[in-house]
Amino acid sequence: MPHLIVEYSQNLAGFPEAQALTELNQAVTSSPEVLDEADLKSRFVLVDSFAVGTAPANRAFVHAQLRLLSGRTPEAKKDLSERVAEVLRRLTPKPAGVMVQLSVEIVDMDRGSYVKERL
Question: Are the C-beta atoms of 105 and 65 separated by less than 8 Å?
Fold first, then answer.
């Protein structure tokens, strides 16, 4: 905990994944909600097959999901989602003629059933 999963459409060529991972990890771990930076697991997922809406237009997306153990306040969740969105706003490619949608979602993980071990 936490887990950060960023999915993005394949038509966003040149997405700077390595830089984004570094900056996203820094943004999330600098929050007082994350007590140990080593707990954050981040990854990017390139989506080859996708659709954005129904119109035959040039569209793309970036969606980040930050999964946290339950119990955070709405204010803490809003702060974390804004930290992630700020990095993605800056680093997401914006190809000419392509509408890019950015979204960030905070998901509560059930504390009672979550298992994590360091081996």
Answer: yes
- The beta-strand segments (E) located in the chain are 3-9, 41-47, 59-69, 99-109
Average pLDDT of the segment spanning 25-45 = 94
**What percent of the chain has pLDDT above 90?**
86
Phi, psi of 4 (to 5 degrees): -120, 120
Confidence of residue 1 (pLDDT cuts 50, 70, 90): confident
Q: Which domains does the chain have, with CATH numbers?
A: 2-109 (3.30.429.10)
| Long-range contact set of residues 13-16: C-beta below 8 Å, sequence gap at least 24 | 13/93, 13/95, 14/93, 15/44, 15/46, 15/91, 15/92, 15/93, 16/91
pTM score of the predicted model: 0.92
**The pLDDT value given to residue 114:** 83
